[in-house]
Design goal:
By secondary structure, the chain is of the alpha+beta class. It is built from 22 helices and 32 strands. It starts with a strand and ends in a 31-residue tail after the last helix.
Length: 857
Amino acid sequence: MNVVVVESPAKAKTINKYLGSDYTVLASFGHVRDLPPKDGSVKPDEDFAMDWEVDSQSAKRVKAIADAVKESDRLILATDPDREGEAISWHLLEALTKRRVLKNVDVQRVAFNAITKPAIQEAMRHPRAVDMELVNAYLARRALDYLVGFTLSPVLWRKLPGSRSAGRVQSVALRLICDRELEIEKFTAEEYWTVDADIRAGGDPFRAKLVSLNGKKLQKLSIKDRASANAAVDAINAADLSVTSVEAKPTKRNPPPPFTTSTLQQEAARKLGFSATRTMQTAQKLYEGVNIGGETVGLITYMRTDGVSMVSEAINQFRDVISDEHGALYVPPKPRFYSSKAKNAQEAHEAIRPTSFSRLPKSLNLDGDMARLYQLIWRRAVASQMESARFERTTIDITSSDQQTALRATGSVLQFDGFLTLYQEGRDDEEDEGEARLPKVEQGAAASAEKTYADQHFTQPPPRFTEASLVKRMEELGIGRPSTYASTLQVLRDREYVRMDKNRFHPEDKGRVVTAFLENFFARYVEYDFTAGLETQLDKVSAGDLDWKQLLRDFWTEFRSAVDEIGELRITNVLDALNEALAPHIFPATEDGSDPRLCPSCKEGTLSLRLGKFGAFLGCSNHPDCKFTRQMSPTEAQSVIEGDGQVAIDPDTGKPIIMKDGRFGIYLEMEVEGEDKPKRASIPKGWDPHALTEDKAIALMSLPRLVGNHPDDGEPITAAIGRYGPYVHHGKTYANLQSVEDVFEIGLNRAVSAIADKIANPGRRGQAATALKELGEHEGKPVRIMSGRYGPYVKYEKINATLPKGTEPETVTLEQAMELVNAKAAKGGKKKAPAKKKAPAKKKTTAKKPAAKKAAD
């Protein structure tokens, strides 16, 4: 008997069919061991020893694999063909060795680039040992990321309250976003003009652009105002023009190479609107396979690669498909071969391509995201082997007789579409090269300007990054690895360091503060070249040219020293540096030229960054005499706290509403006539105290709010915020609401409905969860996606597993859902009810000391 181990149950099921009854294929469900997320899991003082932990769920899987290995004589590790896959195999071997089940067992490692029967059978014929050089590169990367995260993050927490974390690649990606925002803020638009003319030279008129004036070649910003533009128009109208040159050159455009991980993420973002995470999740499904004719077949090759090559068998398939679908003219004389231009590209694997080119997108019954992504991959791969597109590029020069004024017209005529008949890359879709056709004119022919045009323009700042452009920039710089881009960008969103607006990254204030801090005090570790250099060193480790522990020693010595130095800094030193670094953002120049840092309240103090439990904000240097504060971003809605922290005046009583910072957080307080104690209101969770407007402060202090009288008994229904969140109240019934905003907006009809629902379902809070999708059954029990108060989640028996942020419920499969359920159960999501015990009769009871609580990691 042979035991084969892969990562996912979907792959296990498919591969088992291909290998037959002599093989037992089991899934490890990814990594079986991990570093515990707490300080001390990597020990620099013990030559970077690493403590690995097997969680309860993984322990069950390791036991199942170990039990199967005991009954067999061969273990075949068939995890993914990359560093991560190699590491999973190594972890499993380490875990099985501890269980002492590998004696007299032949251990083999196989790797295949596609989940198809021929690819798997070919891999089985060429087993090898686990590649320890790849494993060492994995270990070095994990140790580096761990040491940076668990050493640098506590420094942030101490020096920058409100910060979440820092990471080796994450922080550099954040810097890219923040640097681009700073460029935009510093940008000053410049006016410039372009001058064109409709030229007639014997035939139909054509548009030409002014390129030379007064004998000087024009640059983009040469014509700066309307007067200059009008002078240029006059020069054209007064000129004796003739055609001095007509040049027609054949040009061609070659097709782009097939997809790598990075280019797939970029094109899926541009053409399909997919996030990097959505792209990789969909590609994973295509790789693991879909049911075709009763058999599960992998539709694409492995999707984590930076190689652009393809095997000759695939190229020959392409050429046949191109000939059949488009004709022999679209097949180039020789196959095309590509090499990657990306920095630090390993090119260890093939590009992403269909496993069979005969599976045309239109012939497959795929749904939704899979259909769209498969078509994109298929078209790109096929186009990469098609004939070039051919154009005729024509340039016509028109010059005045005194050589002082010159215009130029350019146009391209598509003569053969080649690969463009199937695929156009990126923004090239917006170009229409076939329309810029110029009339036939003769050199030396007299010309005249029938009409002139002077158009005003302004220079534009660089655009904010989209996911596609950010991934492209990271790849160009050699930062991180394509397989990690999706998770890196997701961490930035989860940490609320950035937000997405119209599919572009905007840095939040907390992200900008973290970046400024790191640039000032850990500059080397957020430098693009330094981070890319580490990737190069990790590549040397995987190639066997560098010892992984020596890499860690060199890094740790300098990094630890930098951390120790920053520990000695006072907060005032940090704030001074941040005030200067963030000045263009937080202290933009005023229109009247006054000091942007002058306190608008006391007119004497200087505004400076201050740090609180909710993050950074601006305050007056005359604190506590002056209590003015505002948000960092001057363009955002601001709250002004003056005098004794006053944020508003209650319109009914005329009493001031004061903001205070108490033992349990920031709250509002207002004196009430005839009452011994003032009225107080906590700031709701999720509301930024420093962004609190007057209207919101007044609304909070007015709670509870009368919604109306119940139509059945005439008793009042009120809305308020309590210990368990927002709610409506009628008589003895309290019904929870979905959000704080509902407290201020809910109408009588919806409030009555919430009260009735609560009375009908007294055992739960809020509204009943509804099923969004039925996924089927697992071990006879239903698996559903439910709509919950905090978003969609998977429900299986008593386990509720939240869907990852950004995941569309309708795209989740049963297998993915069970992976989420198992992960939740492994973290303690599945709780067993303790058995009830009867107290022994007539037995004296003694007080017991409470059990010690487990320390939080």
